[in-house]
Amino acid sequence: MKRLKPDTARSARFSALKDAAYADGHWVSTTLADALREAANTTPERVLLVDGDVRLDCRTLHTQASHLAKLLLSRAPSGSVVSFMLPNWHEAAVIYLASTLAGMVANPVLPNLRGRELRFILEDADSRFLFVPAQFRKFDYRSLADEVIAELELPPEVIVLRGSPGHHTAFDTLLQAETPAIELPRLNPDDIRMVMYTSGTTGRAKGVLHSHNTLHALIQQLGKHWRIDQGDAFLVPSPISHIGGSIYAFECPLLLGSRAVLMEAWQPEPAIDLMEAEGCTHMAGATPFLEQLLAAARSKNTHLQKLKTFICGGAAVPPQLIREAADYFPNACVTRVYGSTEVPVTTVGAPLPNELEFAADTDGRAGIALIKLAEHPAALPGEGEICAKGPQMLLGYLHAEDDTKSFDDEGYFRTGDIGRYIGDYIQVTGRAKDIIIRNGENISPKELEDLLLEHTDIVDIAIVGRPHPKTGERVCAVIVAEGDKMLDVKALFEFLVARNVAKFKIPEQVDIWESLPRNASGKVLKHEIRAALIKNSKD
Length: 539
Prior knowledge:
This protein is α/β, with parallel strands linked by helices. The longest helix has 16 residues, at about 10-25. The model has no long low-confidence stretch (mean pLDDT about 95).
């Protein structure tokens, strides 16, 4: 990864993290590659992933991943970045594990991103491979790849799954090719093995770096606090290109002995049938997932007796929803949690039977992370900016300069979220960082503002989120228009789609104002805009 450069502050922070993590037993000397080899030897027929009619066992995954790893190494050196822009398909696990075995860096990419975002990620990460579907949801990813790689100085090799590859490489052809006579490398558990991009307040997505050991520590925490036993099954409708979906699908089955049941598209009624057929014990997702699962379970008159844990996070979670779900699913712990790609599962929720009050009204207590509240101008009395560090935290960002304002002098990651303590439990009360979370997806307002200010009819603009019962937040554009020009959702949609912006980011509400409220230094007062939108909202 050519842009990962040494940095004195980063080196000191990593050394402190490493020493503490090894001393506490959270970091170990083995890797996920070791876990895969052991599983293939000791439980070869154990099913790790279910994807429709496909049931991928330990032996098959190890065989396919080892084969693909050697093919990747015959094309690029160890340490190269392997990007895959795939739905929740079992082949993604083969690619993820092949990247790991090859000593390469896995880079899961959201399938609903488009040319502008994909081009940035591939160039920024210097990706050597890009795995895409031929088509998914009637969208042609081969054409997208053609468009993007034509603009790159060093384009990645494109490998196409489940369909004609066009002039690219077919995934099936790779799996059937002769295995190169290449030895797989010895892996260092502290090396970078995943880069995942997350929206930032700067408008430029940032690559979050995780190692074998940061993810290992995270998974062990889940096993301890979320009642995950060998033989348990996760329903995984959350995208595998998110940190949550990736760990439930790729990590837990090997490190905790669970099974991942994949859904390529969330549908609540089929989800109920799948959970009952596969005996699913665990599920995690944003508010809409829980709301719709609960409604579907009621409609089908089932209480999902085998469900042990539902983890809800990623957006505002109504306390009453947690209470209703916990009451309806009698054997399940239903709890809010808090975390980020940078410090996954910062809190483990309130999973114990006597913690229901805190499961609903707070975002939970710390597991292996240390949490403190720091002074912040956006915080009210008794609140502070939530800062966290622990063995599951990122090593840093791909660009060392992005670390500068993200960590304090003690090595805590500054989340940009405001919160307060209620006993031992954290309650998130707002965000200092200007990020909108819609359906569990992070959206950078600045990215949209910068683009929309290119529109000839827009004089000034503020993109804000306001609470919404179905999606967590609604993306709202408040616009000062040129003269008497009238702009609506359709106009912004057409403008942004023409610039290859992913549809999930596009504003759902447009309000025309005469001017935007600003403070004495000229900063837009988004809290006032948000408050006005909430006051006037009808949903």
